[in-house]
Amino acid sequence: VKTIAVLTGGGDAPGLNAVIRAVVRTALGQGLKVWGIKNGFGGMVENQLVELTNDSVAGILPRGGTILGTTNRDNPFHYPVVRDGQVIYEDLSGQALANLRQAGIEALVVIGGDGSLKIASEFYQLGLPVVAVPKTIDNDIPGTERTFGFDTAVGVAAEALDRLHTTAESHHRVMVLEVMGRYAGWIALHAGMAGGADCILLPEIPFSIDSVIAKIKERQQHGRQFSLIVIAEGAYPQGGEVSVSRIVEGSHEKIRLGGAGEKLARAIEQLTGVESRCTVLGHVQRGGTPTAFDRILSTRYGVAAAECVLEGAFGNMVALQKDRIIRRPIDDIAGKANNITADNELLRAGRSIGICFGD
Ligand code: F6P
C-alpha cells in the first residue's frame, strides 16, 4: 500500500485531531501518501479529498473537533439525492469506491462510532481494505475498554457537577444534570461518581421516581437540604416511554422527544415541594480541548491504525484492553452495543457508598 485516506465520521469527539495527526505522521514516516476525506462518508461520495502533510497536522493535537469536518447523516449505501425536487435514497457506494480508486487510494482509515463502523464493515465486505478507530464520547463501542473523547466528556460533566454543588447547597435545591448517552449511561455513571452525585440514572436501569424521592428525603432527614442528580438523556422511568430513541431495522432512529432531565426536575418539585432545576449539558461535553488521557489514547490509536495499514492487517478496529492496544475484527463489533451491566464494578462501588440508581 502506497496511498491511504483517512476520514472522521459521525458526531465529533475530543481527540479526533490527535488521531488524524498520529495516522498522518506515522504513515508519512513510512513513505506513504495520505489523503483526508472531508465531511465523513459524504465526502467519499462527493470526492472531497485533501492531501494531508506534516504541515496540515501541525498544532492540531490539543484542538477539539476535526480538521476534516464530519457529518452523522451521510451513508453511501443509503445516500440522499434530490430527484425531481424530492429527496430519495440511493446506493452510491460504487461511486464512493470509484472516487478512491481514481485518486489511487488503496486503503481507508475510518475514525468513527457505531454508524461509521457499520459502513466501514460494509465497505470491507466489498473488498476495500479498511482499518477503524473507535470514537465516541459515549464509550459504548464493544471490544474496547475506552473510546477516545469519553474521558474529556466525563471531566466536563464532573466539573459541571462541582459547580452545581455549591449553588444547590446555597439555595437548598435539587439540581438535575442531564448528560449525553442515549443508549448507554457511561458518561452519567463516571461523571456522577466523580462529581459526588446522590442519584445516577442510566438508560440501562429504568428508574423508579419513588426511589429518587426517597433518597432526597433521606438526605433531608440527615440535614442535607440539597441533592445532586445526574441523568443520562436516554434514561426513562419504570413503565414509562423510551423517550429519546429506539432501534428500527437494526439502525438507530432518533426520536428527539428528549427532556428527560427537565421532566424529572418537574416531577421532583411536585412530589417533594423542593425547588428543582435542570441543566442540560448538551454539546458542551463534546466540544473543546481533549484531556491528556484522550490525547494520549488518540495518539496510540492513530499510530496503531497506521501500523495495521503498513502490516496489511485490514478489517480491524484498534482497541484498548488492559492498557494495551489490540486489534479486533470490525465485523465482530459493527452493529453491537456496549452497555453497563449489573456486575459493573463502578456501579457496585456506587451502591456501596449509598448512591441511588433509581431501582
Ligand atoms: O453519540 C454521541 C452523541 O453525542 C450522543 O451522546 C448524543 O445523544 C448524540 O451524539 C447527539 O447527536 P447530535 O450532535 O446529532 O445532536
Structure description:
- About 35% of the residues lie in helices and about 20% in strands.
- The chain has a seven-stranded mixed beta sheet, sandwiched between helices. A four-stranded parallel beta sheet has the order 9-10-8-13, with helices on both faces. Strands 4-5 form a two-stranded antiparallel ribbon.
- α1 runs parallel beside α9, α5 packs across α6 and α7 crosses α8.
- It is α/β, with parallel strands linked by helices.
- Its cofactor is Mg(2+).
- This is ATP-dependent 6-phosphofructokinase.
- Its EC number is 2.7.1.11.
- Catalyzes the phosphorylation of D-fructose 6-phosphate to fructose 1,6-bisphosphate by ATP, the first committing step of glycolysis.
Provide a short characterization of the protein structure.
The chain is of the alpha/beta class and 359 residues long. Helices cover 36% and strands 21% of the residues. The chain has 11 helices and 15 strands.
